[in-house]
Amino acid sequence: MKNCSSKINRGNKLISLAVVVILGACQPAKDNSSEASMDNIVVVNHRGANRLAPECTYAAAKKSIEHGATYIEIDIRRSKDGVYYIIHDRQLDRTTNGSGLISETESAVIDTLDAGAWFAHKYKGEKVPRLREFLQWVKGKAKVYFDVKDVDLKDFIPIVYEYGFENECFFWFSDWALAKKFRGLHPHLALKVNAYSVEALDSLKRIYNPQIIECSVDNLTEEFMHSCREKGMKIMTWIPGNDWAAYRMAIDKKVDMVNIDNPDVFEGMLKNNGEVKGYKLIAHRGGIVEGKYNEFDPASIQAAIDQGYYMLEIDVRETKDGELIVNHDDNFNRFFNDPRRVGEMTWAEIQKLKSENGNYHPPSFEQVAEMCAGKVEMMIDVKADNSSPEFYRKLEAIMEKYNLLEGAYFIDNEARKYFWGKAKFMIRAPEAGLIREKFESGEDVSCHYFLFDAGTRLTSSLVKMCQKANITVVPSVNFGHYHFEDARRGAKRDIEFLKACGVTEFQIDSDFDGWLPTK
User: Fold this and answer.
1) Residue 494, helix vs strand vs coil
2) Exposed, middle or buried, 195 (CB in 10 Å: 0-12/13-18/19+)?
3) Pairing relation of β-strands 190-194 and 210-215?
4) How many of the other CB atoms lie within 10 Å of CB of 28?
5) pLDDT (tens digit per residue) in 212-228
6) DSSP 8-class letter at 316
7) How far apart are CA 398 and CA 400, in angstroms?
Protein backbone atom coordinates (compact mmCIF):
# COMPACT_ATOMS: atom_id res chain seq x y z
CA MET A 1 0.00 0.00 0.00
CA LYS A 2 1.18 3.50 -0.62
CA ASN A 3 0.71 6.55 1.51
CA CYS A 4 -0.19 9.11 -1.10
CA SER A 5 -3.29 9.66 -3.19
CA SER A 6 -3.62 9.68 -6.96
CA LYS A 7 -5.05 12.31 -9.21
CA ILE A 8 -7.57 9.96 -10.80
CA ASN A 9 -10.77 11.81 -11.55
CA ARG A 10 -9.96 14.31 -8.79
CA GLY A 11 -13.08 16.35 -8.10
CA ASN A 12 -14.43 15.77 -11.61
CA LYS A 13 -18.12 15.45 -12.41
CA LEU A 14 -19.40 14.01 -15.66
CA ILE A 15 -21.19 16.78 -17.50
CA SER A 16 -22.41 14.69 -20.38
CA LEU A 17 -26.06 13.72 -20.53
CA ALA A 18 -26.69 11.39 -17.60
CA VAL A 19 -29.61 9.31 -16.44
CA VAL A 20 -30.74 9.13 -12.86
CA VAL A 21 -33.56 7.15 -11.37
CA ILE A 22 -35.58 8.50 -8.51
CA LEU A 23 -37.37 5.94 -6.48
CA GLY A 24 -40.88 6.77 -5.40
CA ALA A 25 -41.22 9.82 -7.64
CA CYS A 26 -43.43 8.51 -10.43
CA GLN A 27 -46.19 11.08 -10.01
CA PRO A 28 -46.03 14.54 -11.63
CA ALA A 29 -44.12 17.18 -9.72
CA LYS A 30 -46.11 18.64 -6.88
CA ASP A 31 -45.67 20.41 -3.58
CA ASN A 32 -43.77 17.80 -1.60
CA SER A 33 -43.78 19.48 1.79
CA SER A 34 -42.13 16.53 3.54
CA GLU A 35 -39.06 17.03 1.34
CA ALA A 36 -38.94 20.81 1.34
CA SER A 37 -36.00 22.29 3.18
CA MET A 38 -33.76 25.34 3.30
CA ASP A 39 -36.35 27.83 2.08
CA ASN A 40 -38.04 25.16 -0.10
CA ILE A 41 -34.92 24.47 -2.15
CA VAL A 42 -33.99 20.83 -1.70
CA VAL A 43 -30.26 20.46 -1.18
CA VAL A 44 -28.38 17.52 -2.64
CA ASN A 45 -24.87 17.40 -1.17
CA HIS A 46 -22.23 16.20 -3.61
CA ARG A 47 -20.16 13.42 -1.99
CA GLY A 48 -21.28 14.75 1.38
CA ALA A 49 -19.98 18.07 2.67
CA ASN A 50 -16.73 17.43 0.82
CA ARG A 51 -15.22 20.86 1.52
CA LEU A 52 -15.64 20.39 5.26
CA ALA A 53 -14.66 16.73 5.63
CA PRO A 54 -13.22 13.93 3.48
CA GLU A 55 -15.62 13.05 0.68
CA CYS A 56 -17.82 9.94 0.83
CA THR A 57 -17.22 9.33 4.55
CA TYR A 58 -19.39 9.39 7.64
CA ALA A 59 -17.68 12.65 8.61
CA ALA A 60 -18.80 14.31 5.36
CA ALA A 61 -22.31 12.94 5.78
CA LYS A 62 -22.53 14.27 9.34
CA LYS A 63 -21.53 17.74 8.13
CA SER A 64 -24.19 17.53 5.40
CA ILE A 65 -26.88 16.72 7.95
CA GLU A 66 -25.61 19.43 10.30
CA HIS A 67 -26.08 22.04 7.56
CA GLY A 68 -29.53 20.98 6.44
CA ALA A 69 -28.95 18.92 3.31
CA THR A 70 -31.91 16.73 2.31
CA TYR A 71 -29.98 14.29 0.11
CA ILE A 72 -26.41 13.01 0.47
CA GLU A 73 -24.82 11.81 -2.75
CA ILE A 74 -22.91 8.54 -2.35
CA ASP A 75 -20.86 6.77 -5.02
CA ILE A 76 -21.33 3.00 -5.06
CA ARG A 77 -18.67 0.45 -6.03
CA ARG A 78 -18.06 -3.26 -5.39
CA SER A 79 -15.02 -4.93 -3.86
CA LYS A 80 -13.54 -8.03 -5.43
CA ASP A 81 -15.69 -10.20 -3.16
CA GLY A 82 -18.88 -8.27 -3.95
CA VAL A 83 -19.23 -5.98 -0.94
CA TYR A 84 -20.69 -2.55 -1.76
CA TYR A 85 -18.72 0.50 -0.61
CA ILE A 86 -19.12 4.26 -0.81
CA ILE A 87 -16.16 5.68 -2.75
CA HIS A 88 -15.94 7.81 -5.88
CA ASP A 89 -12.87 6.70 -7.84
CA ARG A 90 -12.25 3.34 -9.52
CA GLN A 91 -8.97 3.17 -7.61
CA LEU A 92 -8.24 3.48 -3.92
CA ASP A 93 -5.21 5.75 -4.33
CA ARG A 94 -6.62 9.27 -4.13
CA THR A 95 -8.79 9.13 -1.03
CA THR A 96 -7.28 6.28 0.97
CA ASN A 97 -3.84 5.03 1.95
CA GLY A 98 -4.38 1.99 -0.28
CA SER A 99 -3.75 1.49 -3.96
CA GLY A 100 -5.17 -0.38 -6.92
CA LEU A 101 -8.64 -1.00 -8.29
CA ILE A 102 -11.46 -1.38 -5.82
CA SER A 103 -12.92 -4.13 -7.97
CA GLU A 104 -9.71 -6.11 -7.52
CA THR A 105 -9.39 -5.56 -3.77
CA GLU A 106 -10.95 -7.78 -1.11
CA SER A 107 -13.27 -6.21 1.46
CA ALA A 108 -10.99 -7.42 4.26
CA VAL A 109 -8.34 -5.06 2.89
CA ILE A 110 -10.65 -2.12 2.16
CA ASP A 111 -11.96 -2.24 5.73
CA THR A 112 -8.46 -1.54 7.07
CA LEU A 113 -7.82 1.58 4.97
CA ASP A 114 -7.73 5.17 6.16
CA ALA A 115 -10.07 7.38 4.09
CA GLY A 116 -9.65 10.64 6.01
CA ALA A 117 -6.01 11.47 6.70
CA TRP A 118 -5.42 12.69 3.13
CA PHE A 119 -7.90 15.51 3.73
CA ALA A 120 -6.89 16.66 7.22
CA HIS A 121 -4.94 15.16 10.09
CA LYS A 122 -7.92 15.32 12.43
CA TYR A 123 -9.81 12.89 10.17
CA LYS A 124 -7.17 10.19 10.43
CA GLY A 125 -8.92 6.89 10.98
CA GLU A 126 -12.04 7.55 8.89
CA LYS A 127 -13.00 4.38 7.05
CA VAL A 128 -14.43 3.68 3.61
CA PRO A 129 -18.12 3.16 4.50
CA ARG A 130 -19.83 -0.09 3.66
CA LEU A 131 -23.16 0.62 1.97
CA ARG A 132 -25.35 -1.50 4.23
CA GLU A 133 -23.99 -0.03 7.44
CA PHE A 134 -24.24 3.49 6.04
CA LEU A 135 -27.89 3.09 5.04
CA GLN A 136 -28.74 1.76 8.46
CA TRP A 137 -26.98 4.75 10.07
CA VAL A 138 -28.37 7.47 7.79
CA LYS A 139 -31.99 6.29 7.87
CA GLY A 140 -34.12 9.03 9.37
CA LYS A 141 -31.29 11.57 9.15
CA ALA A 142 -31.13 12.21 5.40
CA LYS A 143 -32.18 10.80 2.05
CA VAL A 144 -29.69 9.32 -0.39
CA TYR A 145 -28.60 10.06 -3.96
CA PHE A 146 -26.97 6.91 -5.35
CA ASP A 147 -24.27 7.68 -7.91
CA VAL A 148 -24.08 4.18 -9.36
CA LYS A 149 -20.55 3.34 -10.45
CA ASP A 150 -20.37 -0.46 -10.29
CA VAL A 151 -23.32 -2.62 -9.21
CA ASP A 152 -25.27 -5.73 -10.08
CA LEU A 153 -28.89 -4.57 -10.21
CA LYS A 154 -30.17 -7.97 -9.10
CA ASP A 155 -28.58 -7.72 -5.67
CA PHE A 156 -28.21 -3.96 -5.37
CA ILE A 157 -31.84 -2.81 -5.70
CA PRO A 158 -33.08 -5.24 -3.01
CA ILE A 159 -30.70 -3.53 -0.56
CA VAL A 160 -32.47 -0.23 -1.22
CA TYR A 161 -35.81 -1.80 -0.33
CA GLU A 162 -34.38 -3.75 2.60
CA TYR A 163 -33.38 -0.52 4.36
CA GLY A 164 -36.56 1.34 3.43
CA PHE A 165 -35.10 3.88 0.99
CA GLU A 166 -37.35 3.15 -1.98
CA ASN A 167 -39.13 6.48 -1.46
CA GLU A 168 -36.10 8.32 -0.06
CA CYS A 169 -33.43 8.10 -2.73
CA PHE A 170 -32.56 8.60 -6.36
CA PHE A 171 -29.99 7.08 -8.69
CA TRP A 172 -27.62 8.24 -11.39
CA PHE A 173 -26.27 5.92 -14.10
CA SER A 174 -23.41 7.12 -16.29
CA ASP A 175 -23.94 4.01 -18.41
CA TRP A 176 -26.91 4.50 -20.74
CA ALA A 177 -27.26 0.76 -21.29
CA LEU A 178 -27.52 0.12 -17.55
CA ALA A 179 -30.02 2.98 -17.23
CA LYS A 180 -32.13 1.46 -19.98
CA LYS A 181 -31.98 -1.94 -18.31
CA PHE A 182 -33.00 -0.41 -15.01
CA ARG A 183 -35.93 1.38 -16.68
CA GLY A 184 -37.11 -1.86 -18.20
CA LEU A 185 -36.94 -3.71 -14.90
CA HIS A 186 -38.57 -0.91 -12.91
CA PRO A 187 -41.04 0.88 -15.23
CA HIS A 188 -42.91 2.49 -12.35
CA LEU A 189 -39.88 4.22 -10.88
CA ALA A 190 -39.16 7.75 -12.08
CA LEU A 191 -36.04 8.93 -13.83
CA LYS A 192 -33.82 11.99 -13.76
CA VAL A 193 -31.85 13.15 -16.76
CA ASN A 194 -29.48 16.00 -17.51
CA ALA A 195 -30.64 18.48 -20.13
CA TYR A 196 -29.41 21.82 -21.37
CA SER A 197 -31.97 22.94 -23.93
CA VAL A 198 -35.71 23.19 -24.37
CA GLU A 199 -35.42 21.18 -27.58
CA ALA A 200 -34.14 18.13 -25.69
CA LEU A 201 -36.99 18.03 -23.20
CA ASP A 202 -39.68 16.56 -25.45
CA SER A 203 -37.65 13.51 -26.44
CA LEU A 204 -36.38 12.99 -22.90
CA LYS A 205 -39.91 13.14 -21.58
CA ARG A 206 -41.12 10.69 -24.22
CA ILE A 207 -38.29 8.18 -23.76
CA TYR A 208 -37.55 8.40 -20.03
CA ASN A 209 -40.52 10.21 -18.48
CA PRO A 210 -38.19 11.95 -16.00
CA GLN A 211 -39.30 13.69 -12.83
CA ILE A 212 -36.12 15.77 -12.43
CA ILE A 213 -33.95 17.63 -14.90
CA GLU A 214 -30.41 18.51 -13.84
CA CYS A 215 -28.72 21.45 -15.54
CA SER A 216 -26.31 24.32 -15.12
CA VAL A 217 -27.44 27.69 -13.77
CA ASP A 218 -26.64 29.03 -17.23
CA ASN A 219 -29.55 26.99 -18.61
CA LEU A 220 -32.11 28.55 -16.29
CA THR A 221 -33.99 30.63 -18.84
CA GLU A 222 -37.67 31.31 -18.29
CA GLU A 223 -38.51 29.19 -21.33
CA PHE A 224 -36.45 26.22 -20.10
CA MET A 225 -37.84 26.35 -16.57
CA HIS A 226 -41.41 26.77 -17.77
CA SER A 227 -41.06 23.84 -20.14
CA CYS A 228 -39.66 21.58 -17.40
CA ARG A 229 -42.45 22.40 -15.00
CA GLU A 230 -45.12 22.21 -17.68
CA LYS A 231 -44.00 18.63 -18.26
CA GLY A 232 -44.07 17.84 -14.53
CA MET A 233 -40.29 17.79 -14.04
CA LYS A 234 -38.39 19.35 -11.15
CA ILE A 235 -35.30 21.45 -11.84
CA MET A 236 -32.00 20.69 -10.13
CA THR A 237 -28.88 22.76 -10.77
CA TRP A 238 -25.38 21.29 -10.50
CA ILE A 239 -22.98 23.89 -9.04
CA PRO A 240 -19.46 22.57 -8.45
CA GLY A 241 -16.89 24.28 -6.23
CA ASN A 242 -17.08 27.62 -4.44
CA ASP A 243 -19.25 29.50 -6.94
CA TRP A 244 -21.29 31.85 -4.77
CA ALA A 245 -22.58 33.82 -7.79
CA ALA A 246 -24.11 30.60 -9.14
CA TYR A 247 -25.63 29.92 -5.71
CA ARG A 248 -27.30 33.33 -5.87
CA MET A 249 -28.60 32.62 -9.36
CA ALA A 250 -30.15 29.34 -8.22
CA ILE A 251 -31.78 31.08 -5.26
CA ASP A 252 -33.04 33.98 -7.36
CA LYS A 253 -34.45 31.61 -9.99
CA LYS A 254 -36.20 29.58 -7.27
CA VAL A 255 -35.04 26.21 -8.53
CA ASP A 256 -36.47 23.09 -6.94
CA MET A 257 -33.15 21.47 -6.05
CA VAL A 258 -29.42 22.20 -6.01
CA ASN A 259 -26.53 19.75 -6.19
CA ILE A 260 -23.62 21.45 -4.37
CA ASP A 261 -20.36 21.01 -2.47
CA ASN A 262 -20.86 23.64 0.27
CA PRO A 263 -24.12 23.18 2.20
CA ASP A 264 -22.87 25.43 5.00
CA VAL A 265 -22.44 28.41 2.69
CA PHE A 266 -25.71 27.78 0.87
CA GLU A 267 -27.57 27.46 4.15
CA GLY A 268 -26.22 30.82 5.28
CA MET A 269 -27.01 32.53 1.98
CA LEU A 270 -30.64 31.43 2.18
CA LYS A 271 -30.88 32.92 5.66
CA ASN A 272 -29.16 36.16 4.68
CA ASN A 273 -30.74 37.18 1.36
CA GLY A 274 -27.90 35.78 -0.71
CA GLU A 275 -25.09 37.26 1.40
CA VAL A 276 -22.26 34.99 2.49
CA LYS A 277 -21.51 35.13 6.19
CA GLY A 278 -19.62 32.93 8.61
CA TYR A 279 -16.15 33.91 7.44
CA LYS A 280 -13.26 32.41 9.41
CA LEU A 281 -11.01 35.26 10.50
CA ILE A 282 -7.42 35.12 11.72
CA ALA A 283 -6.34 38.12 13.75
CA HIS A 284 -3.03 39.59 12.60
CA ARG A 285 -0.67 40.02 15.57
CA GLY A 286 -2.91 38.35 18.03
CA GLY A 287 -6.15 40.24 18.30
CA ILE A 288 -8.15 43.40 17.98
CA VAL A 289 -5.94 46.48 17.62
CA GLU A 290 -7.59 49.39 15.77
CA GLY A 291 -5.95 51.93 18.08
CA LYS A 292 -7.73 50.42 21.09
CA TYR A 293 -5.10 47.94 22.24
CA ASN A 294 -1.45 47.14 21.72
CA GLU A 295 -0.38 43.99 19.85
CA PHE A 296 -0.66 40.95 22.12
CA ASP A 297 -2.25 42.88 24.94
CA PRO A 298 -4.33 40.22 26.76
CA ALA A 299 -7.32 42.53 26.33
CA SER A 300 -6.74 42.51 22.56
CA ILE A 301 -6.65 38.72 22.52
CA GLN A 302 -9.83 38.47 24.55
CA ALA A 303 -11.60 40.97 22.30
CA ALA A 304 -10.83 38.81 19.24
CA ILE A 305 -12.15 35.75 21.02
CA ASP A 306 -15.30 37.59 22.03
CA GLN A 307 -15.88 38.82 18.47
CA GLY A 308 -15.82 35.32 17.03
CA TYR A 309 -12.39 35.15 15.43
CA TYR A 310 -11.43 31.65 14.34
CA MET A 311 -7.68 31.91 14.87
CA LEU A 312 -4.98 34.27 16.17
CA GLU A 313 -1.61 34.85 14.54
CA ILE A 314 0.99 34.48 17.29
CA ASP A 315 4.62 35.66 17.00
CA VAL A 316 6.88 33.48 19.16
CA ARG A 317 10.37 34.29 20.44
CA GLU A 318 12.73 32.80 23.02
CA THR A 319 14.27 34.58 26.01
CA LYS A 320 17.91 34.33 27.08
CA ASP A 321 17.00 31.58 29.53
CA GLY A 322 14.77 29.62 27.15
CA GLU A 323 11.26 30.85 27.96
CA LEU A 324 8.91 31.13 24.98
CA ILE A 325 7.22 34.52 24.83
CA VAL A 326 4.90 36.34 22.44
CA ASN A 327 6.29 39.51 20.85
CA HIS A 328 6.51 40.60 17.22
CA ASP A 329 9.61 42.81 17.41
CA ASP A 330 13.03 41.58 18.53
CA ASN A 331 13.03 44.27 21.24
CA PHE A 332 10.52 45.89 23.62
CA ASN A 333 10.86 49.47 22.47
CA ARG A 334 7.46 50.05 20.87
CA PHE A 335 5.11 49.12 23.70
CA PHE A 336 7.34 48.90 26.78
CA ASN A 337 9.82 51.72 26.08
CA ASP A 338 12.76 49.37 26.54
CA PRO A 339 15.26 48.93 23.67
CA ARG A 340 16.72 45.66 24.99
CA ARG A 341 16.41 42.60 22.76
CA VAL A 342 14.28 39.61 23.72
CA GLY A 343 17.17 37.17 23.41
CA GLU A 344 19.34 39.28 25.72
CA MET A 345 16.90 39.24 28.63
CA THR A 346 15.78 36.57 31.07
CA TRP A 347 12.13 35.80 31.65
CA ALA A 348 12.41 37.29 35.14
CA GLU A 349 13.67 40.56 33.69
CA ILE A 350 10.95 40.65 31.04
CA GLN A 351 8.22 40.11 33.62
CA LYS A 352 9.20 43.42 35.21
CA LEU A 353 8.29 45.33 32.05
CA LYS A 354 4.93 47.02 31.94
CA SER A 355 3.25 48.64 28.94
CA GLU A 356 2.49 52.35 28.95
CA ASN A 357 -0.88 51.62 27.32
CA GLY A 358 -2.88 48.81 28.88
CA ASN A 359 -0.75 48.23 31.97
CA TYR A 360 0.21 44.62 31.14
CA HIS A 361 3.41 42.58 31.06
CA PRO A 362 4.75 40.81 27.95
CA PRO A 363 2.91 37.48 27.88
CA SER A 364 4.55 34.10 27.76
CA PHE A 365 3.53 31.74 25.00
CA GLU A 366 1.91 29.43 27.53
CA GLN A 367 -0.18 32.28 28.96
CA VAL A 368 -1.51 33.03 25.48
CA ALA A 369 -2.07 29.34 24.76
CA GLU A 370 -4.13 29.03 27.93
CA MET A 371 -6.30 31.96 26.83
CA CYS A 372 -6.84 30.36 23.42
CA ALA A 373 -7.51 26.80 24.58
CA GLY A 374 -10.91 25.58 23.47
CA LYS A 375 -11.80 28.98 21.99
CA VAL A 376 -9.57 29.82 19.01
CA GLU A 377 -6.84 28.13 16.98
CA MET A 378 -3.29 29.41 16.44
CA MET A 379 -1.29 30.54 13.41
CA ILE A 380 2.32 30.35 14.57
CA ASP A 381 5.04 32.67 13.25
CA VAL A 382 8.42 31.77 14.74
CA LYS A 383 10.46 34.95 14.75
CA ALA A 384 13.77 33.64 16.07
CA ASP A 385 16.22 32.52 13.38
CA ASN A 386 17.91 29.13 13.62
CA SER A 387 15.78 28.00 16.53
CA SER A 388 17.01 24.85 18.19
CA PRO A 389 15.23 21.50 18.38
CA GLU A 390 14.69 22.28 22.04
CA PHE A 391 12.76 25.42 21.08
CA TYR A 392 10.37 23.36 18.95
CA ARG A 393 10.11 20.70 21.65
CA LYS A 394 8.91 23.35 24.11
CA LEU A 395 6.54 24.78 21.51
CA GLU A 396 5.06 21.35 20.85
CA ALA A 397 4.68 20.53 24.53
CA ILE A 398 2.69 23.69 25.21
CA MET A 399 0.52 23.35 22.13
CA GLU A 400 -0.22 19.70 22.90
CA LYS A 401 -1.03 20.58 26.50
CA TYR A 402 -3.73 23.01 25.38
CA ASN A 403 -4.88 20.92 22.37
CA LEU A 404 -3.77 23.57 19.86
CA LEU A 405 -1.38 21.66 17.61
CA GLU A 406 -3.73 19.62 15.43
CA GLY A 407 -5.59 22.67 14.09
CA ALA A 408 -2.57 24.96 13.88
CA TYR A 409 -1.15 26.78 10.85
CA PHE A 410 2.60 27.43 10.70
CA ILE A 411 4.11 30.25 8.63
CA ASP A 412 7.56 29.04 9.65
CA ASN A 413 9.11 26.56 7.22
CA GLU A 414 11.55 25.18 9.78
CA ALA A 415 8.58 23.85 11.75
CA ARG A 416 7.93 21.27 9.02
CA LYS A 417 10.84 19.23 10.37
CA TYR A 418 9.16 18.88 13.73
CA PHE A 419 5.41 18.99 13.14
CA TRP A 420 4.90 17.31 9.75
CA GLY A 421 1.74 15.26 9.90
CA LYS A 422 0.43 17.22 12.87
CA ALA A 423 -0.43 20.66 11.45
CA LYS A 424 -0.60 22.67 8.20
CA PHE A 425 2.22 24.69 6.67
CA MET A 426 2.16 27.73 4.45
CA ILE A 427 2.94 27.86 0.78
CA ARG A 428 3.41 31.20 -0.97
CA ALA A 429 2.11 32.13 -4.42
CA PRO A 430 5.50 31.47 -6.13
CA GLU A 431 5.39 27.86 -4.81
CA ALA A 432 2.03 27.13 -6.42
CA GLY A 433 3.61 25.40 -9.42
CA LEU A 434 5.39 22.92 -7.17
CA ILE A 435 2.23 22.22 -5.20
CA ARG A 436 0.31 21.69 -8.41
CA GLU A 437 2.89 19.10 -9.47
CA LYS A 438 2.53 17.35 -6.12
CA PHE A 439 -1.25 17.37 -6.44
CA GLU A 440 -1.26 16.06 -9.99
CA SER A 441 1.26 13.34 -9.15
CA GLY A 442 -1.00 12.07 -6.40
CA GLU A 443 0.66 13.41 -3.26
CA ASP A 444 -1.51 14.39 -0.32
CA VAL A 445 -1.55 18.19 -0.28
CA SER A 446 -4.82 19.05 1.42
CA CYS A 447 -3.75 17.83 4.84
CA HIS A 448 -0.28 19.42 4.75
CA TYR A 449 -0.55 22.88 3.19
CA PHE A 450 -2.44 26.14 3.16
CA LEU A 451 -1.93 28.95 0.65
CA PHE A 452 -0.85 32.06 2.52
CA ASP A 453 0.10 35.27 0.76
CA ALA A 454 -0.90 38.90 0.48
CA GLY A 455 -4.34 39.43 -0.98
CA THR A 456 -2.72 41.79 -3.46
CA ARG A 457 -0.80 38.82 -4.96
CA LEU A 458 -3.49 36.14 -5.25
CA THR A 459 -5.11 35.53 -8.61
CA SER A 460 -8.41 33.82 -9.29
CA SER A 461 -6.59 31.03 -11.14
CA LEU A 462 -4.34 30.31 -8.18
CA VAL A 463 -7.24 30.37 -5.73
CA LYS A 464 -9.32 28.00 -7.87
CA MET A 465 -6.42 25.58 -8.29
CA CYS A 466 -6.02 25.36 -4.52
CA GLN A 467 -9.75 24.96 -3.98
CA LYS A 468 -9.84 22.07 -6.45
CA ALA A 469 -7.03 20.42 -4.49
CA ASN A 470 -8.84 21.10 -1.18
CA ILE A 471 -5.95 23.33 -0.06
CA THR A 472 -7.10 26.00 2.37
CA VAL A 473 -6.68 29.52 0.96
CA VAL A 474 -5.77 32.23 3.49
CA PRO A 475 -5.11 35.69 2.06
CA SER A 476 -3.47 38.21 4.37
CA VAL A 477 -5.01 41.66 4.22
CA ASN A 478 -2.89 43.96 6.35
CA PHE A 479 -2.10 47.67 6.37
CA GLY A 480 1.50 46.89 5.41
CA HIS A 481 0.39 45.68 1.95
CA TYR A 482 -0.89 49.08 0.82
CA HIS A 483 2.05 51.48 0.86
CA PHE A 484 1.07 53.15 -2.44
CA GLU A 485 -2.68 53.62 -1.99
CA ASP A 486 -5.32 54.24 0.62
CA ALA A 487 -5.17 51.10 2.76
CA ARG A 488 -8.89 50.86 3.48
CA ARG A 489 -9.95 51.21 -0.12
CA GLY A 490 -7.28 48.77 -1.23
CA ALA A 491 -8.24 46.25 1.45
CA LYS A 492 -11.92 46.46 0.59
CA ARG A 493 -11.18 45.96 -3.12
CA ASP A 494 -9.07 42.87 -2.45
CA ILE A 495 -11.50 41.41 0.08
CA GLU A 496 -14.44 41.75 -2.29
CA PHE A 497 -12.46 40.15 -5.11
CA LEU A 498 -11.39 37.22 -2.96
CA LYS A 499 -14.90 36.76 -1.57
CA ALA A 500 -16.14 36.52 -5.16
CA CYS A 501 -13.56 33.76 -5.72
CA GLY A 502 -15.13 31.77 -2.91
CA VAL A 503 -12.46 32.40 -0.27
CA THR A 504 -13.82 31.98 3.26
CA GLU A 505 -10.71 32.39 5.48
CA PHE A 506 -8.76 35.63 5.86
CA GLN A 507 -5.85 36.77 8.00
CA ILE A 508 -6.55 40.46 8.60
CA ASP A 509 -5.86 43.55 10.58
CA SER A 510 -9.02 43.80 12.63
CA ASP A 511 -9.85 47.21 11.15
CA PHE A 512 -11.08 45.34 8.05
CA ASP A 513 -13.36 42.77 9.67
CA GLY A 514 -16.52 44.79 8.94
CA TRP A 515 -16.43 43.45 5.36
CA LEU A 516 -16.18 39.86 6.61
CA PRO A 517 -19.08 38.99 8.94
CA THR A 518 -18.47 35.93 11.09
CA LYS A 519 -22.16 35.37 11.88
Assistant:
1) helix
2) buried
3) parallel
4) 12
5) 899 999 999 999 999 99
6) E
7) 5
pTM: predicted TM-score of the whole model, two decimal places: 0.89
Q: Residue 183 in 3-state DSSP?
A: helix
- The answer to whether 439 and 451 are in contact (CB under 8 A) is no
pLDDT at residue 1 is higher than 60: no
Do 142 and 469 touch, CB atoms closer than 8 A?
A: no
CB atoms within 10 A of CB 253: 15
Q: Which residues pair with 157 in a beta bridge?
A: none
Q: pLDDT tens digits, residue range 406-446?
A: 999 999 999 999 999 999 999 999 998 999 999 999 899 99
DSSP secondary structure code for residue 413 in this structure? G
> Is the Cβ–Cβ distance between 98 and 87 less than 8 Å?
no
Count of beta carbons in the 10 Å neighbourhood of residue 254:
12
- Sequence-separated (6 or more) residues with CB below 8 Å from residue 21: 170, 171, 172, 173, 179, 182, 183, 186, 189, 190, 191, 192
The DSSP bridge partners found for residue 315 are 381
Region of 5 on the Ramachandran plot (φ > 0 left; ψ -120 to 50 alpha; else beta): beta
- Residues forming beta bridges with residue 410, ordered by sequence position: 380, 425
> Per residue, what are the HEC states of 37-57?
CCCCCEEEECCCCCCCCCCCC
Q: Could you tell me the end-to-end alpha-carbon distance of the chain, in angstroms, rounded to an integer? A: 43
pLDDT tens sequence across 337-362: 999 999 999 999 999 999 989 999 99
Gap between the Cα atoms of 103 and 10, Å rounded: 19
The closest of 139, 118, 140 to 53, measured between CA atoms, is 118
User: What is the average per-residue pLDDT within 94-98?
Assistant: 97
* Separation of alpha carbons 131 and 451, rounded Å: 35
Per-residue b or e along 423-453, where b marks 16 or more CB atoms closer than 10 Å to that residue's CB? bbbbbeeeebeebbebbeebbbbbbbbbbbb
187 exposure class (CB count in 10 Å sphere: 0-12, 13-18, 19+):
exposed
Dist. CA 510–CA 478, nearest whole Å: 9
Dist CA 236 CA 22 (whole Å)? 13
Residue 435 carries which side chain, given as an amino acid letter? I
DSSP codes of every residue in 130-199? BHHHHHHHHTTT-EEEEEESS--HHHHHHHHHHTT-TTSEEEEES-HHHHHHHHHH-TTSEEEEE--SHH
Are the CB atoms for 142 and 65 separated by under 8 Å? Answer: yes
Q: Helices 153-162 and 176-185: crossing angle, nearest 10°?
A: 60
DSSP helix/strand/coil, 249? helix
* SS3 (DSSP) at 380: strand
Inter-residue contact 21 to 173 (CB < 8 Å): yes
The rounded distance, in Å, linking the Cα atoms of 15 and 34 is 30
Strand-strand pairing, 338-341 and 331-332: antiparallel
Residue type, 62: K
CA 264 to chain CA centroid, nearest Å: 10
Cβ proximity of 300 and 328 under 8 Å = no
Computed from CA positions of residues 339, 340, 343, 348, in that sequence, does the dihedral angle turn out positive or negative?
Answer: negative
